[in-house]
Write a structure and sequence with these properties.
Chains A, B: Catalyzes the NADPH-dependent reduction of L-glutamate 5-phosphate into L-glutamate 5-semialdehyde and phosphate. The product spontaneously undergoes cyclization to form 1-pyrroline-5-carboxylate. The structure is a homodimer. With about 425 residues, the first copy, chain A, is α/β, with parallel strands linked by helices. Chain A has 2 domains: about 240 residues, Aldehyde Dehydrogenase, Chain A, domain 1 (3-Layer(aba) Sandwich); about 140 residues, Aldehyde Dehydrogenase, Chain A, domain 2. Chain A has 14 helices and 16 strands. In chain A, the strands form 4 sheets. In chain A, strands 10-9-11-8-7-12-13 form a 7-stranded parallel sheet, sandwiched between helices. The first copy, chain A, has a 4-stranded parallel sheet with strand order 5-4-3-6, with helices on both faces. A 3-stranded antiparallel sheet of chain A has the order 1-2-16, with no helix packed on it. Chain A is globular.
Chain lengths: ~425, ~425
């Protein structure tokens, strides 16, 4: 370990104390100033992005990766809009979540405070540089960013704008640290700084997330993948179930809250599957099914066992007929990733059994899996989705970047007054 | 890895689904039955404890360690009473912490669910076997216990009682696993089971906690030590400050919420220190101070730099005179352990600056550090105190053994209705 990252983290921790001590209005102004700065620096940011894109093309990068890397005016509009929305969110810091006064007059409050220093390790999308910084600073934290080397010029340009906003607000620039040196040892050093880094959040492909989880000594909140299920119960409304299926699979197949597996109760398979699978196929979705599925809909390919654990992130779905709700639960427990599961049913008892029977971070009754999203679920914005069953489970908003601590106020209260005689 | 612990953990995970699916009354009855079982099995438990004590004496163990290990009827009364109190606590599982209905009718709830499988790694005190099991099962979790080898017979006897209660309630015994084989490799295996163990909580000396933190791939919540500070502000009431000092240092010096360092504003040092330090000395406390302290109270020894970071857990205190509240904050930030800090002051602005200026899990204004305890702060019982700034910060009660997840109910709600045309 070179100590290079430790020095950056120490500076960030000092700056964090300043950010945390601001009042809510000052943090709102800071994030609004960041929006203004990015808006004003479009030319420089797009020029930097053009360098990254050229380098990526020269290296033979194509398709989806190149698209994730790409910024244009419309996408920068989106970044600026997101920053303004984050600025306008309610500030969680200092919020008193519980307050009680004991019979002896001792007042016990639980108060939200920032986590401290958050490390983000991410790939490709340069907008994360702005989003993550805004969410962390709005909630009184400092942030250390480590983006992918493919987006280095874009990330540096965006970080320069964000730091200008810090400077213009009279605040320490070290509250935002971007590790610019691409050497991997710096990530390893960052992940060992247990005395300085309070939380690491990896965002990107499964490889990146596993790398962070395996090497971190600091706490990590992550999700590996979203293998999301729709279970169509025997008491399902077929039209409603079809809506959920199409929205879940075909509206945006590349995201983690898209459906990957459809489980259908045997009693409705015959009335539901042919129409539903035809509608999927009409939208370009490849269907992989077990023998019972293929008997009802010959357009299906044979599903392998691996298909039932796959996060396709594509226009592909695995389908299975099950004989009971219990079999559906057993399938999901075995193959699921604790992300999002959906039941379509008109039977309240079946819905309740489904909700209670699963550990997943979000369970939807007669609603699309695509609602598992911080914006949709009322968090305003999200810094990630957690399938780590600790601290935060599901979409993580500003509150997830804080922790409740105890503030106790007395008038000389002691536990052993006899000792004072 | 032998796979021995993995098999136990898999069985515990299956049993956990059964415990989680119980209603609150059934979990209350289970923990009450555990109290009855321990109460009924006193003879066997005390006989087992006598074996542990004999073995410890033969090995030359003495003093505090032997005392922590020892059970007698009065201590078993305490264990039974604690179990009954845990049985009577409100059940957090299924609690709806937030509920909102969107304009489009989609209902979004956050609901508390158990963490899953909790691993406790602890030393000496056999009562942890009962307390931890009761807290975990009451909150719908399963538990894997790994106690110290010095208490193995006692822990086995208590676990046998607790399992009898599970059996009598018709519940799977595997919801409580005690790793009886003392080989250390089993702990290492336990700490690697990221797919099965949701949280590990170490309780014991700093060595044990560091071992767990360094080897765990599963999430860990811990506190290394409690270096708790009392800052006597220039606006402090001297008599009130003396009360807090005596209660914090002399009422029970061996616990983590006892005071270790006293910081005194220079403007009150002359009126406060001589009387306060004499009162400490009268209660057998050794005072180690800087030059300004020793000038005011010659009974003090010279404090070393290490004394200001020490968790004495004994009748020893480090004392320093500071020139300002800011100097006190800087001292605490440098030497503190984020556990508990106290200010004595009549100045509301100083109190506020102290609270805001510190990261600690509990900050006390004119109240003793000894109140940082789950029972005192209204949690009913605690499974530990966290200085990990994630998930729980401060005393951890039943709620800290749960996590909020999202349950969403719609009527066929989708994000992209246009896709359905």
């Amino acid at each position: 370990m070179s100590g290079y990252v430790r020095a950056l983290a120490e500076a960030a921790r000092e700056a964090q104390a300043v950010i945390a001590a601001l009042d809510a209005d000052a943090r709102t102004r800071l994030v609004a100033a960041m929006a203004d700065a990015v808006d004003a620096d479009r030319v420089a940011i797009l020029a930097a992005n053009a360098q990254d894109l050229q380098r990526a093309r020269d290296a033979g990068t194509g398709g989806a990766m190149l698209d994730r890397l790409r910024l244009d005016d419309a996408r920068l509009d989106g970044v600026v809009k997101a920053l303004r929305e984050i600025a306008a969110l309610p500030d969680p810091v200092g919020q008193v979540t519980r307050s009680e006064v004991r019979a002896d007059g001792l007042r016990i409050e639980r108060v939200r405070v920032p986590l401290g220093l958050v490390a983000m390790i991410y790939e490709a999308r340069p907008n994360v540089t702005a989003d993550a910084t805004a969410l962390c600073l709005k909630s009184g934290n400092a942030v250390i960013l480590r983006g992918g080397s493919e987006a280095l010029a874009s990330n540096c340009a965006i970080a320069a704008s964000l730091r200008r906003a810090l400077r213009e607000c009279g605040l320490p620039e070290a509250a935002l640290v971007l590790i610019e040196d691409p050497a991997r040892e710096h990530v390893l050093e960052l992940l060992q700084l247990t005395d300085l880094v309070d939380l690491a959040i990896p965002r990107g492909g499964e490889g990146l997330i596993r790398f962070v989880a395996e090497h971190a000594r600091v706490p990590v909140i992550k999700h590996y993948k979203g293998v999301c299920h729709l279970y169509v119960d025997r008491a399902a409304d077929v039209a409603l179930a079809t809506r959920l299926l199409l929205d879940g699979k075909a509206s945006r197949p590349g995201v983690c809250n898209a459906l990957e597996t459809l489980l259908v109760h045997a009693e409705v398979a015959e009335v539901f599957l042919p129409g539903a699978l035809a509608a999927l196929a009409a939208r370009g979705v490849e269907v992989r099914g077990d023998a019972r599925v293929r008997a009802l809909w010959p357009g299906a390919q044979a599903a392998s066992e691996a298909d039932y654990a796959a996060e396709f992130l594509d226009l592909v779905i695995a389908v299975r007929v099950v004989d009971s709700l219990e079999d559906a639960l057993a399938h999901i427990r075995r193959h699921g990733s604790d992300h999002t599961e959906v039941i379509a049913t008109a039977d309240a008892a079946a819905a309740e059994a489904f909700v209670r029977g699963l550990r997943s971070s979000a369970v939807m009754v007669n609603a699309s899996s695509r609602f598992n999203d911080g914006g949709e679920l009322g968090l305003g914005a999200e810094i990630g989705i957690s399938t780590t069953r600790l601290h935060a489970y599901g979409p993580m908003g500003l509150e997830s970047l804080t922790i409740e601590r105890f503030v106790v106020r007395g008038a000389g209260h002691v536990r052993h007054p006899d000792l004072l005689d």
